Amino acid sequence: MKRASVTSLERRADLSSWVIVVTFTALSLLIEGTSEQMNIARYGLSEPGGVAAQWLYEMSSHVALLLMTIIVPIWLDRFPIALSTWRRRIPHYVVAFLIFSVGHIFIMVAIRQTAWPLIAAGQYEFGLLRFEPWAYEMRKDFMSFLSLLGIFITSRHIFSLDEERRAARDDAQATGQLTLKAGGRQILVPADQVVSASAAGNYVEI
Question: N or C: which end of the chain has fewer CB within 10 A?
Answer without folding.
Answer: N
